[in-house]
Amino acid sequence: MITRFYLEDFEPGAVVETAGHLFTEEEILRFARDFDPQSHHTDPDAARASIYGGIIASGWHTCSVMMRLMCDAYLLESAGMGSPGVEEIRWLLPVRPGDTLRGKRTVLSARVSGSKPDRGIVKMHWEGFNQRDELVVSVRSIAFVKRRPLG
Amino acid sequence: MITRFYLEDFEPGAVVETAGHLFTEEEILRFARDFDPQSHHTDPDAARASIYGGIIASGWHTCSVMMRLMCDAYLLESAGMGSPGVEEIRWLLPVRPGDTLRGKRTVLSARVSGSKPDRGIVKMHWEGFNQRDELVVSVRSIAFVKRRPLG
Fold it and tell me: SS3 letters for B74-90?
């Protein structure tokens, strides 16, 4: 993968839209059995009787799929150097089998690091929408991104 | 799974320690190929040449494993009703193949919901330590938990 995007390309306000990802029931159950085996994620009968009325994806699954959508949309072509963390996640609506999630990334701020001048710190807002254009997840993420080499 | 823990059992300051989870290289690569295919997570050669000096787990993988450790330690026996989100994640140190992660949960606050008096909102601090007792991940999580039924 060729690096196309450096710190200078993350201008505040810049938006990237991702492709969509269809959540199947099988995939929701598989993730949840590995990582989040609460019954509203793994047991269709218990989920039906719960406040959710049926299986919903683990919030960590939703975030992991958002990460993948962002990787494919811009991150794999960016000079990323990892992340110190996330400022906030909001799981606003359930993600159910048959839902398609698509992401939108908006750059909030970008600045050169004070201690490591070869890189900068980019703050972004990731929003995930379902096929009815409802906002289902909001993530305020942070990334280290290399500055564009001179010459 | 029998429900043992209700809102009243989440007293501020209460600590639960989890079991440990060994991260294998195969598992790190598998998660990353699905959800976070940046080369420092998926390509041993590229990872060796990166600032990380070798394969490291995706931060979303680390958080998902923390979720599983918390499920097994107390959540599956709690009257949990899902989560509105997370207040902060800090990925403080890399998690590498061969590392064992264990979690510690501390209740920060617990209060009855103003709008839905059958449940409460619990704020917790999850900390993940490696086999050298270094803090590698910190998550400030939020959960909805049912109040103990009367009688």
Answer: CHHHECECCCCEEEEEE
pTM, two decimals, is: 0.97
Q: Where are the domains of chain B?
A: 7-146
Please state the separation of Cα A110 from the chain's center in Å. 18
Report domain A7-146's class.
alpha beta
DSSP letter for each residue of A31-90: HHHHH---HHHH-HHHHHHSTTSS----HHHHHHHHHHHHHHHTGGGB-B---SEEEEEE
Q: Check whether B1 has a pLDDT greater than 80.
A: no
Residue A15 · residue A101 · CB < 8 Å: no
Mutant choice from A5, A23, A52, A60 vs B, greatest count of B C-beta within 10 A: A60
What is the C-alpha separation between A128 and A62, in angstroms, rounded? 9
pLDDT per position as a tens digit, B57-93? 999 999 999 999 999 999 999 999 999 999 999 999 9
Token reading at B39: 């080369």
Q: Do B40 and A82 touch (CB under 8 A)?
A: yes
Closest CA to A55 of A85, A24, A19: A24
Q: List chain A residues with CB under 8 Å of B89.
A: 85-86, 89
Query: What are the C-alpha distances in Å from A91 to residues A34, A86, B128?
Result: 20, 14, 22
With residue B69 as reference, give the H or E element that holds it: helix B59-73
Residue of B nearest to A85 (CA): B90
Residues of chain B found within 8 Å of residue A80, distances taken between Cβ atoms? 38
The amino acid present at B24, given as its one-letter code, is T
Interface ipTM: 0.97
| Cα gap A136→A145, rounded to integer Å | 27
A37-89 pLDDT tens trace: 999 999 999 999 999 999 999 999 999 999 999 999 999 999 999 999 999 99
